[in-house]
Amino acid sequence: MNELPDDRPTDAERKMQFLYALRSKGVTDNIVLSAMEAVDRSPFIRGIFSERAYEDMPLPIACGQTISQPSVVGLMTQALEISPRDKVLEIGTGSGYQAAILSKLARRVYTIDRHRRLVHEARAVFEAMDLTNITAIVADGSYGLPEQAPFDRIIVTAAAEDPPGPLLAQLKVGGIMVLPVGQSDTVQHLIRVRKTADGLEYDEMRSVRFVPLLEGLGKDA
């Protein structure tokens, strides 16, 4: 009895479809695309959802959080305009996927999450991938990381009503911060903030939906 041909796409085909989906959603920076091609999303997703790693959709992870859809990760990364000498702060480690992308572009990445479990699991993936320029910390991200400030770039992967003052204070003049803002989980906008010698410049990018930025540590911390 002959076996039916396996019509499932190969890894190479999935990666090509993945990159095409990113481009179609506006991720056009070749350096960012190369970073996203180099970082496999699968290890950051556990259980039954791991087979959907190459789909452009958010997926649930532990502690009631989500891993953002790759096109949003790409757009936020692209908006940061990272250079190889930059020191980047990420608020909201989550799965660790966004930090892994950043690590391919920046000199140093500091990532903070209020959930100890998420930080420990992300550290394990970073170590397995030999990503040595990431420091993952359990802390209240709404206060940033003043002992390592100032930062060239700051990215926030949870929504606040306004850009948090402590984070703006830790951004270098000439630096960029990208974050979702909004008063509810249904009305949020992704914005880019440029810090100049004369003040702050804001660009609104697109509508998004993120978990809220909460103060304090998670119950598991």
UniProtKB/TrEMBL annotation:
Any one GO biological process: methylation
InterPro entries documented for this protein: PCMT (IPR000682), SAM-dependent_MTases_sf (IPR029063)
Active site positions: S68
Keywords in alphabetical order: Cytoplasm, Methyltransferase, S-adenosyl-L-methionine, Transferase
GO molecular function: protein-L-isoaspartate (D-aspartate) O-methyltransferase activity
Enzyme Commission no: 2.1.1.77
A Pfam cross-reference name: PCMT
Gene Ontology cellular component list: cytoplasm
Subcellular location: Cytoplasm
Reaction(s) this enzyme catalyzes, per UniProt: [protein]-L-isoaspartate + S-adenosyl-L-methionine = [protein]-L-isoaspartate alpha-methyl ester + S-adenosyl-L-homocysteine
EC class name: transferase
HAMAP family listed in its UniProt record: PIMT (MF_00090)
Function: Catalyzes the methyl esterification of L-isoaspartyl residues in peptides and proteins that result from spontaneous decomposition of normal L-aspartyl and L-asparaginyl residues. It plays a role in the repair and/or degradation of damaged proteins.
Family: Belongs to the methyltransferase superfamily. L-isoaspartyl/D-aspartyl protein methyltransferase family.
Protein name in UniProt: Protein-L-isoaspartate O-methyltransferase
